[in-house]
Write a structure and sequence with these properties.
Immunoglobulin-like, 3 helices, about 425 residues, 60s Ribosomal Protein L30, Chain: A, 5-stranded mixed beta sheet, mainly beta, single chain, 4-stranded mixed beta sheet
Length: about 425
């Protein structure tokens, strides 16, 4: 209904009598709600707000006087971009409990770092920078991983000597002397060493970013067929980075180097179904192993269509899928995920020629939609799919025999649009 003034006061008029829900929202405070009874006379009501957890209040002062010109940077579980102090020399920031690196900087006072243990039940937690002597400005160095997250255990070395360790992936560098070029080594557990060249550009007020690459982890794979015989197969990895399809050897074995993270591993071979498994590659492990057993394919791709070799079963005259059909649909989902170049697919429901035309049309539509819902749950992006029922207008066999009618009652997938892989 309105905003409070600088004293935290809000005047409300022309409120109707009765019980009203009062809600107060303010930055860094927990939302306050209560039932308030509006009477017929003027009234003063006081609301006591509770702090949100893990709020810090950065305060910079010099000789007891607030410093109005300055910036605050915070790095820890995440990196928070630089923000200016308020005119009262303060800046509130909500964080998560843990160790954070807080840096105050200004053109006059230079840069001042502080490692802070942020506590959940202590808000606001003051971080006070008492400034005494102007300091030469230093360069800010951010160390992040390939996903843009801070590297929390990074350290900076020069000539084998550790210069600093940035708990929040944040370092302060003294700029080299004019025209000098210095080489630093950025190191962190489970990451590849990264070389940094630093020089004095004449503008010390600079923030640089170093992106570190994870040290890869070996994934040893073995693929066998339905009888346990090794199978040469195609392997596709979907995860934190783009990779081309790869293959195992003739004995169904292969070792692949992957960056840490969560990967979907899809394995296929001629005449065998696509198998998929999700695996987490953990930083620091020397090698992980994975074994696949492929089964005979329940699907085949023919002229832009995915034909189902086995029946997809539904309850009689209903759209509920039978449990025995989940294996077929899982293979269909795996096949679709392994072919991202299939941009758009249509799930087609068909019935036989018996029964009412309108009823069959509606039933086939509901069944196609039921299949689409299952495929989405199995990991196929919904924007790639559309469901359509065709009723009995597209038979593939005669409706004069039971065998023909069974063949006509089917689910098919048509590839409507393809793109680049």
């Amino acid at each position: 209904m309105g905003w409070t003034d600088t004293r935290g006061t809000l005047r409300l008029t022309k409120l109707r009598k009765g019980t009203r829900r009062l809600q107060v929202v303010a930055d860094f405070y927990a939302m306050h709600e209560e039932q308030y009874v509006v009477g017929g006379k003027a009234d003063t009501h006081e609301v006591l707000l509770q702090w949100q957890p893990a709020v810090i209040e950065v305060f910079a002062s010099a000789q007891g006087t607030p410093v109005q010109e300055g910036m605050v940077r915070v790095a820890g579980a995440e990196y928070i971009p630089a923000a200016p102090l308020n005119p009262d020399g303060r800046k509130r920031i909500q964080l998560t409990p843990g160790i954070w690196e807080v840096v105050f900087s200004s053109g006059t006072w230079g840069m001042h770092p502080r490692t802070v243990q942020v506590q959940e039940n202590k808000s606001p937690q003051e971080v006070h920078f008492e400034l005494t002597t102007p300091r030469r400005f230093r360069q800010v160095l951010r160390v992040i991983d390939e996903d843009g997250e801070p590297v929390l255990a990074a350290r900076l070395e020069r000539n084998g000597e550790t210069l600093a360790a940035g708990p929040g992936g944040l370092f302060l560098l003294e700029p080299p002397s004019e025209d000098a070029l210095e080489e630093f080594l950025v190191r962190a557990p489970h990451f590849q060493d990264t070389t940094l060249m630093a020089m004095n550009t004449g503008d010390d007020r600079v923030e640089r970013t170093v992106v570190m690459s994870y040290s890869p982890v070996s994934l040893a794979m073995e693929v066998v067929g339905p009888t346990g015989v090794p199978v040469e197969s195609t392997v596709r990895f979907l995860g934190p980075e783009e990779r081309q399809s790869e293959t195992t050897d003739l004995l169904g074995k292969g070792t692949f180097l992957l960056r840490p993270g969560v990967w979907d591993v899809l394995v296929s071979a001629p005449d065998l179904g696509v198998s998929r498994r999700r695996v987490e590659i953990r930083p620091g492990t020397t090698e992980q192993t994975l074994r696949f057993m492929l089964v005979t394919a329940k699907l085949e791709v023919v002229e832009g269509r995915v034909r189902v070799k086995e029946k997809v079963y539904f309850a009689l005259n209903r759209s509920e899928l039978g449990k025995e059909s989940l294996a077929v649909l899982q293979e269909a989902a795996n096949l679709m995920v392994s072919h991202p170049e299939w941009v758009r697919l249509e799930i087609q429901g068909h019935t036989d020629g018996s029964g009412d035309l309108v009823y069959n049309q509606a039933l086939s539509s509901r069944r196609a939609e039921a299949v689409m819902k299952v495929l989405v749950k199995m990991g196929v992006a919904p924007e790639r799919l559309r469901a359509r029922g065709y009723g009995r207008i597209r038979p593939v066999a005669t409706n004069e025999t039971e065998e023909g009618r069974q063949a006509n009652r089917r689910v098919e997938f048509e590839i409507l649009e393809t793109g680049s892989d």
